[in-house]
């Protein structure tokens, strides 16, 4: 029997799965804090990270059912075609393990805390391991994939008149909303103009997609 104990639980802007970027780094404004928990809060555990720009996070899809299927429906294929689970990054995996490359913004050795950005993790995700990203071996320009071949084309995001004032008051939140919604979080089988809502940093963000892109309709308390 293999037992894995979390190093800590990451705090992110994403309190629900809907709206989380489908890959890391696509929303640089998605900031997160990872604090180590006992017994891992040991002096020197972060020594040497100051010169590191990116990290690999190995985590557990904790809000996912333990049941898995041998074939899944990748969003990049429109949510209709199936592929083998090991050809995708679907969270519906046998061991529910995830891997994410994130940017390291700062290191707090006193409080055993890492500030990160570009995250694609649900709030309170258990982190099982942290490893430095090594460009000479982890970046493979010659690598290819059968269907996820290009970065998704972002949609243009605009704010309705009713949220313009809130947008000006909180530019960091506005940037996060723009980056997340430009990735079109709608289910691939719901490509229509109906209104959707996602929760970001405790706010309910209502939006719809039309011919001009994404329109943020309102911001309210979640």
Number of helices: 3
- Given helix and strand content, the structural type is mainly beta
- The CATH homologous superfamily name of the largest domain equals YaeB-like
Number of strands: 12
Write the CATH fold name of the largest domain: Elongation Factor Tu (Ef-tu), domain 3
Number of domains: 2
Q: Return the CATH class of the largest domain.
A: Mainly Beta
Q: Main β-sheet, in a few words?
A: 6 strands, antiparallel, barrel
Which percent bin holds the helix content? under 10%
> Which overall shape is indicated by the principal axes computed on the Cα atoms?
globular
Overall mean confidence score, pLDDT: 92
Question: How much of the sequence is in beta strands?
Answer: 25-35%
Name the CATH architecture of the largest domain.
Beta Barrel
The strand line-up of the biggest sheet is 1-2-7-6-3-8
How many angstroms does the end-to-end distance come to? 41 Å
The stretches of 5 or more residues where confidence is low (pLDDT under 50) are none
- Please give the oligomerization state of what you see: single chain
Radius of gyration (Å): 18 Å
List the helices and strands in order. EEEEEEEEHEHHEEE
């Amino acid at each position: 029997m293999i037992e894995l104990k979390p190093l800590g639980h990451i705090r992110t802007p994403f309190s629900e799965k809907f709206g989380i970027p489908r890959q890391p780094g696509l929303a640089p404004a998605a900031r997160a804090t990872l604090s180590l928990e006992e017994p891992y809060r040991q002096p020197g555990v972060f020594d040497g990270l100051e010169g590191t720009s990116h990290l690999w996070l190995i985590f557990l899809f904790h809000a996912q059912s333990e049941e898995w299927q041998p074939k899944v429906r990748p969003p990049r294929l429109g949510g209709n075609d199936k592929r083998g689970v090991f050809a995708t990054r679907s969270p519906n995996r046998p061991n529910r393990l995830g891997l994410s490359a994130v940017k390291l913004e700062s290191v707090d050795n006193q409080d055993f805390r890492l500030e990160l950005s570009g995250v694609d993790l649900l709030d309170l995700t258990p982190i099982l391991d942290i490893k430095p990203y090594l460009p000479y071996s982890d970046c493979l320009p010659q690598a290819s994939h059968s269907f996820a071949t290009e970065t998704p084309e972002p949609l243009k995001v605009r704010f309705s008149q009713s949220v313009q004032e809130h947008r000006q008051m909180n530019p960091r939140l506005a940037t996060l909303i723009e980056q997340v919604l430009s990735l079109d979080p709608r289910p691939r089988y719901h490509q229509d103009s109906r209104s959707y809502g996602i929760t970001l940093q405790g706010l309910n963000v209502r939006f719809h997609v039309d011919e001009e892109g994404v329109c943020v309709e309102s911001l309210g308390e979640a």
